[in-house]
Structure prediction request, 73 residues.
Amino acid sequence: MSSIPSQKSTTASNELAKQRNRAAAERTLTSWIHNCLSVIGFGIAFDRIFNALNDVLFGLITLVAVFTVISWQ
Prediction:
């Protein structure tokens, strides 16, 4: 009869350990998802910034080329 209480406490502690492991796994998964979404967001932001800079620089180069051609005439 003494083996039954120890078996119940072991089962209870095993269940608590399983719950802790599951909670840790969920936290890890959500942190990975959070990090991936952050990297995707930064990538989109960098793409937009570099495309805007490219457009501005292309416009600037075009203006310089036009003024250079005009000044040569």
User: Anything to note?
Assistant: The first helix runs from residue 3 to 72. The chain has a mean pLDDT of 85. The radius of gyration is 31 Å. DSSP finds one helix and no strands in the chain.
